[in-house]
Specification:
Elements: H1 3-15, H2 22-38, H3 40-51, H4 55-81, E1 84-86, E2 95-103, E3 106-110, H5 118-129, E4 133-137, H6 143-156, E5 162-164, H7 169-176, E6 182-186, H8 189-201, E7 206-209, E8 215-218, H9 224-239, E9 252-256, H10 260-275, H11 279-282, H12 291-299, H13 304-308, E10 310-312, E11 316-317, E12 322-323, E13 326-329, H14 336-339, E14 346-352, H15 357-363, E15 370-374, H16 378-387, E16 392-395, E17 416-417, H17 423-428, E18 430-438, H18 453-463, H19 467-480
Parallel strand pairs: 3-4, 3-6, 4-5, 6-7, 8-9, 8-15, 9-14, 13-14, 15-16
Antiparallel strand pairs: 1-2, 2-18, 7-17, 10-13, 11-12
Helix pairs in contact: 2-4, 2-5, 3-4, 3-6, 4-5, 9-10, 18-19
Length: 481
C-alpha cells in the first residue's frame, strides 16, 4: 500500500495552485453531478446489494441529497470564496482588514456504510468547493457502493487531486499514519476515538460526525389530527431512514404515561400503513447491513425483561438479515437497549408522569446528535432549547433538518464535533485567513520603548477604546516631542 507516494503526489498537485481556481472547483462539482446522473441505476443496484434499499428511499436519502448539495455549491461557491471586508478599529488608522477563505490542503474523508453514497459525496463536495485535494475512504461494510465509487470517480473527477482508496481496518490504520491537513470522519464513537488518537500525534484538525441516542418528546397536542401527524413523523423518523440504521433516527420516545396506549396504537397503525401487515414481504424496509450488526441487535433483546417489554413486532430472519419494526414499552433503563445507541429497528417508549420530566431524563444521558420534540407549548420549547444540550433541536418534525443547507449539521460532546452542509461544509474544509493592510505613515510612537508615564496613559486609553482621548493624547504627545 504505497499511500505515501500517492499522498505526496496530491500535495504536489495542491501546491501547483490548480485546485484554488473557481473554474476547477466548479468543473469538479459539475462532474460529480454528471457521475450520479450517468450512474443512477448502478447506484440503486449497489444500494440494493449492500442494504436492500428501495430505489425511492435510495433517491431520497442518497442521490437527491448529493444533487441538492452540488447545485447549492455551484450557485454559491464564488460568493463563499470572495474576500470579506472586516471592520478595523480607529486605533489602527490608516488601515483596512479582510478575511479570505483558503483551502486547508490534502484532506482525508472517511464515509459510513449506512448512507454510503451521500455520506461519501456530500463531504467531498464541501472539500472540493473549498479547493482541497482529497482522499476518500469509503466504508468496506458497503462493498458494492465502495467499489462503484472507486471505479467511477477517477473517470469523472480530476484523478490528480481526488483519489479513492478502498480497504478494511488495516487500510484505515495505514491512512491514519500519514500526515493530513484535515480528517473528516463519519461513523461510530469507538472508531472516532481511534481517529482522534492518530490525529493528535500530528495535531491534525478533525470533524467527527457521530451519533447517539436521539430522543423524541411527545407532548399532549390539541387535536387528534395533529397527534396523528406527529406519530406519523416519528414512525418516518425511526424506521424510514435505513430501518433505523441512521445517526439521526429517533432512538426512543418520551411520553406521559396516560398517553402511552394511544401512542402505541398509532405507532402500530402507521407501521402497517407504511410497511404492510408483513413488513418482510413489503420490500420497502432496508435490511440490516451484515450479520455482525444483526447479531448485535438481537443481543439487545436477550435480557428477559427487555423481551417482556415488546408490545409490537420482534420477529427476525437471520438469513434475510431482516428485523421487524419493533416497539417496546418501558424496557429497563439500565439495559443495553437504553444505554447504547440502538442503530436499528427497535423503538423504546419511555413513560414519565409529567412531560417536563423528559428534560431531566435527557440531561442524565450523553448529549444526543438531535433532539426531536412535538409540542405547541412555547414555554416548553424555550425550556428544551435552554436547558438541554444537543447537536440540533427539531420541533414537530424529524429528519428534515438534515436537508436544510442553511443550518449547520453536527454534534456536541459524544455525538461529535464540527459541522457541515451548505456553506458550513465549505467553512469546515477552509482556513479563514485574516489580512491587515496598514500604511507606512502616522506612526504611533507610544507603542515603542523607552517607557514613561505618558506612554502608559496612551496604552490605557487605547485598550479602553477612548477614541477622543487618544486623539487629544496624540496631539499633546506631538507638541511635547
Amino acid at each position: 500500500m504505497d499511500f505515501l507516494r500517492e499522498i505526496q503526489e496530491l500535495r504536489q498537485f495542491f501546491r501547483s495552485g490548480r485546485t484554488r481556481s473557481v473554474a476547477w472547483r466548479k468543473k469538479q462539482v459539475k462532474a460529480l453531478l454528471q457521475l450520479i446522473h450517468d450512474n443512477e441505476q448502478a447506484i440503486f443496484e449497489a444500494l440494493r446489494q449492500d442494504l436492500g434499499k428501495h430505489p425511492v428511499e435510495a433517491y431520497r436519502d442518497e442521490i437527491g441529497v448529493v444533487e441538492k448539495s452540488a447545485n447549492n455549491s455551484l450557485n454559491h461557491v464564488e460568493k463563499w470564496m470572495a474576500p470579506r471586508k472586516s471592520h478595523v478599529p480607529f486605533l489602527f488608522f490608516p488601515a483596512k482588514g479582510e478575511v479570505i477563505s483558503e483551502p486547508l490542503g490534502v484532506v482525508l474523508i472517511f464515509s459510513s456504510w449506512n448512507f454510503p453514497i451521500s455520506l461519501a459525496l456530500d463531504p467531498l463536495i464541501g472539500a472540493i468547493s473549498a479547493g482541497n485535494a482529497v482522499v476518500l475512504k469509503p466504508s468496506e461494510q458497503a462493498p458494492a457502493c465502495s467499489s462503484l465509487l472507486a471505479k467511477t470517480i477517477p473517470h469523472y473527477l480530476d484523478p490528480d487531486a481526488i483519489k479513492v482508496i478502498e480497504g478494511g481496518a488495516d487500510v484505515s490504520e495505514q491512512l491514519l499514519l500519514q500526515r493530513w491537513d484535515k480528517i473528516f470522519f463519519t461513523g461510530s464513537s469507538r472508531v472516532a476515538s481511534i481517529v482522534m488518537t492518530a490525529a493528535a500525534k500530528t495535531l491534525t484538525p478533525v470533524t467527527l460526525e457521530l451519533g447517539g441516542k436521539c430522543p423524541a418528546i411527545l407532548d399532549s397536542l390539541s387535536s387528534p389530527s395533529e397527534l396523528k401527524t406527529a406519530v406519523k413523523r416519528i414512525v418516518g423518523g425511526k424506521w424510514g431512514p435505513c430501518s433505523g440504521q441512521a445517526c439521526i433516527a429517533v432512538d426512543y420516545v418520551l411520553v406521559e404515561e396516560k398517553f402511552a396506549p394511544v401512542l402505541i396504537e398509532l405507532l402500530k397503525k402507521f407501521i402497517r400503513r407504511f410497511y404492510g401487515d408483513n413488513p418482510k414481504e413489503s420490500k420497502v424496509t432496508a435490511r440490516i447491513v451484515n450479520k455482525q450488526h444483526f447479531q448485535r441487535l438481537c443481543n439487545l433483546l436477550k435480557d428477559p425483561l427487555v423481551v417482556n417489554s415488546i408490545v409490537h413486532g420482534g420477529s427476525v430472519d437471520e438469513e434475510e438479515l431482516f428485523i421487524e419494526p419493533t416497539i417496546l414499552l418501558d424496557p429497563p433503563l439500565d439495559a443495553q437497549i437504553m444505554t447504547e445507541e440502538i442503530f436499528g429497528p427497535f423503538l423504546p417508549v419511555i413513560t414519565v408522569n409529567q412531560i417536563q420530566e423528559s428534560i431531566e431524563f435527557i440531561n442524565s444521558r450523553p448529549k444526543p446528535l438531535t433532539l426531536y420534540a412535538f409540542t405547541k407549548d412555547e414555554t416548553f420549547k424555550r425550556k428544551i432549547v435552554s436547558e438541554t444540550s444537543s447537536g440540533s433541536v427539531s420541533f414537530n418534525d424529524t429528519l428534515v433538518h438534515f436537508l436544510c443547507e442553511t443550518l449547520p449539521f453536527g454534534g456536541v460532546g459524544q455525538s461529535g464535533f464540527g459541522r457541515y452542509h451548505g456553506k458550513y461544509s465549505f467553512d469546515t474544509f477552509s482556513h479563514e485567513k485574516a489580512i491587515l493592510h496598514r500604511k507606512l505613515f502616522l506612526e504611533i510612537e507610544p507603542r515603542y520603548p523607552p517607557w514613561n508615564q505618558l506612554k502608559m496613559q496612551f496604552l490605557r486609553l487605547a485598550y479602553r477604546l477612548n477614541y477622543f482621548g487618544i486623539l487629544l493624547f496624540l496631539m499633546g504627545f506631538r507638541r511635547r516631542n
